[in-house]
Sequence to fold (335 residues):
Amino acid sequence: MNTMRFLALPTLLLFSSALFAQAIDPAALYQDYCAVCHGDNGDGKSLARKGLVPPPRDFTNPRSTLELSRKRIIAGIAQGVPGTAMSGWNSRLSTSQINALADFIQTRFMLPAPTEDASQGGRIYAEYCSVCHGDQGRGAIWAAGGLSPPPANFTDPRVQRSLSRDHMIDAVTYGRPETAMTGWQSRLSKQEITSVVDYVITTFMPNSRMALVNPAQTLAANGHQGHDRMHFDINLPFPDQLLGDLQRGARLYQANCATCHGEEGDGGGPRAYFINPRPRNFLHASSRSALNRPRLFEAIGKGRLRTEMPAWEKVLTRQQIADIGEYVFHTFIKP
Ligand code: HEC
Ligand code: HEC
Ligand code: HEC
Fold:
C-alpha cells in the first residue's frame, strides 16, 4: 500500500507535466485562472472587480496598449504587481504557459500596437482629417458652425461611447451618408485607414472604454481567433440564437421605421426631410458593407446617440428587434 503511493506520485507528476508541455490552450488557461478578475472579454468587468482596489486591468482600454509591452505583460503575469490583487503565477504556470497567455491577451483583447511606422497615422490625420476634425480632435472651429452635422468631437465621452474601433474603420472607409464625412477607400489603403483610426483612438480617446468591436459582434465572434476580428462577416447570425420572422418584421418596419427610413429603405421617408443627420439609407454602400444581423440588432436596440434614431429596446422585445432586423437585412442590405 505504502509502496504503491510512493510509486504512483512521481508517475502522475511526470505524466501531467508531459501533458502540459504538449498542448497549451491559452484560452482555457485564461478562462480558468484570469477571467474571474479580468472578465470574459478582458475588459475587467467581473464580479470580483467590485471588491478590488486597484481594479483588475482592463486590457481593451487604449491606455493598456500604450502601457503594456509584451515584456511587461509577461513580467506582470510571472511576478504579479505588488500591493494589488494581481499575484505572481510563476510557481503555478510554466514559462511557455505564461508566454502563451501574454500572446492571447495581446491578440484577443488589446488594440494592435501602433504600426512599425508609428507616425504614419499622425501624418495621415494631419493631412486629411484635421481640416474638419481639428488638431485636438474636437472639430475645427470653422466646421463647427459651417457643417451640419458638425464633425464628430472625438474627445466627447458621449461620442466615444457611441463608437467602436470597427465602427470607426467602417465610417472612415465608406463615409457617413448625407454628411460631409466622405469615404476614404479610394484614397487610403486599408492599412492606412487602420493606422489613422488607431491614431485617433490613442491620441484623443486615451481614457475611453473603447470596444474593439460592437458588443453584439463580440458575442458572435467568440470562439474565433483574435485576428479574425477585423474580418467583417455579412452572414453572422443574431445574438442568442434568435431567428427573425420576415412577415412580422415587415409589419413592424412599416409601422415604426418607414416614416424615417422610407418604404424602400432609401432613407427617404416623409419625416426624413426634417431630420439631421438624415435617417440611414440602407441601400448605400456604407450600410451594405457594415450592417450584418448582429450589428442591425445592436443598432436598432441601442439607437444612435446625437441622432433621432431611438433606442428601440425600450419599446420592442428582443424577438421583435430580430424580426425587424431580418426584414431590413433580407430586403435592403442583402436582397
Ligand atoms: C484576484 C484577481 C486577479 C486574478 C485572478 C488575475 N489578475 Fe491580473 N490583475 C489584477 C489586478 C487587480 C491588476 C491591476 C494591478 C494594477 O493596476 O497595478 C492586474 C493586472 C494585470 C496585468 C497588468 C500588469 C501591469 O504591469 O500593469 C496583467 C498583464 C495581468 N493582470 C494578467 C493576468 C493574467 C494572465 C491572469 C491569469 C493567469 C491574471 N492576471 C489573474 C487582478 C487579477
Ligand atoms: C470635410 C470634413 C471631414 C473630413 C475631411 C473628415 N471628416 Fe470625419 N466626420 C465629418 C463629419 C461631418 C462627421 C459627422 C458625421 C455624423 O455625424 O454622422 C464625421 C465623423 C467621423 C467619425 C465618426 C463616425 C460616426 O459614425 O459617428 C470618424 C471616426 C471620423 N469622422 C474620422 C475621420 C478621419 C479618420 C478622417 C481623415 C481620414 C476624417 N474623418 C475626415 C467630417 C469630416
Ligand atoms: C425619427 C426617425 C427614425 C425612426 C422612426 C427610425 N430611425 Fe433608424 N435612424 C434614424 C437616424 C437619424 C439614424 C442615424 C443616421 C446616421 O447616423 O447615419 C438612423 C440609423 C439607423 C440605423 C444605422 C445605425 C448605425 O449604427 O449605423 C439602423 C440600422 C436603423 N436606423 C434602423 C431603424 C429601424 C429598424 C427602425 C424602426 C424600428 C428605425 N431605424 C426607426 C432615424 C430614425
User: Anything to note?
Assistant: The CA atoms of residues 77 and 209 lie 23 Å apart. Residues 176-177, 256-257, 259-261, 271, 275, 277, 279-280, 291, 296, 299-300, 304, 307-309, 312, 324, 328 surround heme C (ligand 3) (CB under 6 Å).
